[in-house]
């Protein structure tokens, strides 16, 4: 089946919309209705809208420490600096004070990413013009090397929650655009790499079920080891991607986004053994936690459908538990994706 690139790009937008609820706001409606042929323009449109919305509210500001020679005292006096001024016959006080500033890490990331995007040849002129206008309001903001940003260390609070989605888009763009050609032009892969797509894929499925199945407990919970003596030193954490629970019925979903959904040995296709061992371990340890209470614990490996000829769709009965392996076809209008996700819950949990 030939992939319709515009459908895939549109579904990237829908996945982002679930992962970051900000995109569901009315000011992003125009983007939802537009047809995109590549990711660069999709991200450029989202950033232009998002930054414009943030400018109306005011750019996020943080207190930063400033040191300045002044004719009147502000904040506290730096004695060494003041003495140095006196010795130089400068009648100025060396002052240290805190000042609210737009020149902080979050705004620096936005500006640096936009400037990187403006160098990209595939971005349409109308998006570039829109972004350039937005950058006029960032004149007091410095740029930085995006390779030096520790993305995992960025924290969001009450005053900068609106930046969460924008910074995530910047990370996706920066990590893709930082590759250059010999001519010095920046490029972005046609699609995100497996690792980043897998994170987005997991988050999308989790947030989809949270929104559309409020009767379920939907978490990305840790599963305790079923230990006989209680000693679990050095055991790895069992972190599920998605756990759906209704009373004593549990479905553990492991979301996988790979280029190939199966592995081939001597012409024979089999499931990735590590994935199957992992979901089986999750299910059996969760099953043990219920003890003698009547319950049902099932597991599902949910692969994103690829262009491979083989698409797993099997259910196995393993030592009293149901383990399913399915593929989710993202090369469909979103209603088709919704039907698949709803069907999984009806078949394996409800």
Automatic annotation (TrEMBL):
Keywords: Endonuclease, Hydrolase, Nuclease. The keyword ATP-binding does not apply. It is an enzyme of class 3 (hydrolase). InterPro entries: McrC (IPR019292), McrC_bac (IPR014407). Its EC number is 3.1.21.-. The keyword Hydrolase applies. It comes from the Bacteria. Pfam families: McrBC (PF10117). One of its GO terms (molecular function) is endonuclease activity. One of its GO terms (biological process) is DNA restriction-modification system. NCBIfam families: PRK09736.1. This is 5-methylcytosine-specific restriction endonuclease system specificity protein McrC.
């Amino acid at each position: 089946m030939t992939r319709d690139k515009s459908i895939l790009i549109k579904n990237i937008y829908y996945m982002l919309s679930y992962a970051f609820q900000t995109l569901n706001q009315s000011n992003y409606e125009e983007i939802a209705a537009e047809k995109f042929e590549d990711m660069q323009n999709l991200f450029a449109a989202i950033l232009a809208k998002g930054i414009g919305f943030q400018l109306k509210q005011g750019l996020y500001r943080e207190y930063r420490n400033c040191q300045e020679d002044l004719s009147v005292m502000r904040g506290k006096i730096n004695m060494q600096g003041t003495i140095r001024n006196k010795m130089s016959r400068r009648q100025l006080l060396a002052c240290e004070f805190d000042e609210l500033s737009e020149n902080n890490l979050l705004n620096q990331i936005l500006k640096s990413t936009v400037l990187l995007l403006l160098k990209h040849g595939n971005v349409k002129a109308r998006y570039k013009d829109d972004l350039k206008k937005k950058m006029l309001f960032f004149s007091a903001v410095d740029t930085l090397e995006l390779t030096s940003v520790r993305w995992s260390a960025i924290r969001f609070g009450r005053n900068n929650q609106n930046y969460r989605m924008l910074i995530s888009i910047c990370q996706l763009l920066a990590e893709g655009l930082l590759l250059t050609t010999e001519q010095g032009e920046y490029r972005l892969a046609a699609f995100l790499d497996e690792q980043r797509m897998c994170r987005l894929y997991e988050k999308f499925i989790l947030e989809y079920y949270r929104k559309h199945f409020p009767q379920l407990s939907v978490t990305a919970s840790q599963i305790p080891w079923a230990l006989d003596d209680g000693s679990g030193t050095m055991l790895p954490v069992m972190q599920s991607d998605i756990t759906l629970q209704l009373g004593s019925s549990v479905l553990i979903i492991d979301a996988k986004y790979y280029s190939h959904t199966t592995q081939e040995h001597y012409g024979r296709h089999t499931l990735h053994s590590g994935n199957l061992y992992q979901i089986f371990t999750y299910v059996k340890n969760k099953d043990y936690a219920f003890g003698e209470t009547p319950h049902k614990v099932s597991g599902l490996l949910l692969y994103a459908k690829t262009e491979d000829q083989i698409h797993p769709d099997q259910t196995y009965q393993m030592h009293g538990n149901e383990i399913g392996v399915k593929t989710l076809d993202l090369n469909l209008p979103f209603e088709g994706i919704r039907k698949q996700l709803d069907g999984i819950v009806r078949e394996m949990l409800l």
